[in-house]
Amino acid sequence: MPPTRADALLLLNEFVTNPSLINHMKAVEAAVRAYARRLGEDEELWGLAGLLHDFDYERWPHPPDHPLKGSEILRQRNYPEEVIYAILSHADYLTDYPRVHLLDKALYACDELTGFIVAVALMRPNGVMDLTAASVMKKLKRKEFARNINRDDIQRGAADLQVDLTDHIQFVVDSLKPLAAEIGIERGWGHSSEVL
Predict the structure, then answer these.
(1) For the purposes of burial, counting CB atoms within 10 Å of the CB of 69, is it exposed (0-12), middle (13-18) or buried (19 or more)?
(2) Which of 23, 95, 97, 146 could form a disulfide with 89 if both were Cys (CB 3.0 to 4.6 A apart)?
(3) Is the pLDDT of residue 191 over 50?
(4) Smallest Cα–Cα separation from 58: which of 73, 78, 42?
(5) Which helix (H) or strand (E) holds 46?
(6) CB of 66 within 8 A of CB of 60?
(7) Are 31 and 114 in contact (CB under 8 A)?
(8) pLDDT band at 196 (very low <50, low <70, confident <90, very high)
(9) How far apart are the C-alpha atoms of 123 and 1, rounded to whole Å?
């Protein structure tokens, strides 16, 4: 029997201690699953790729160890090759794994954008709940905001997935709303009980 989401969560708990990294992977999973639903693809398979795409990053943060080390572990644990390939293809420096499948493109398109949306949501009183693509687009133009997030990757991801950037942003924002409380973006930092 192929690994399930429950197996993937156990793997995350084995390899990742940083709650922010776990939340990032859950956010990317939500966005990728939403695209699978929209495109009539396998939601469970796509969800695994989103949930596990950075599971090895904490132990092996430097290229090309991330995600090559993780791919070895996933193969040993019998994860589907489509999931492993998509995870390998999300690293631009691994040129042997071009993004050719729809899953590869969706994962790449959601990865950096999801991180950026979370950063924007954390700065707003109502978090992601009333966030619009227009607000995200304004922040994208401010280079000093979330400067570690590559804007070119966000634009390239939307173009490769052949979706309008504004529509893509709104779609990902909406995909995160059901998960907002779990990953701490239902309210911004100023309203978080953890901060008070």
Answers:
(1) middle
(2) 97
(3) no
(4) 73
(5) helix 43-52
(6) yes
(7) yes
(8) very low
(9) 43
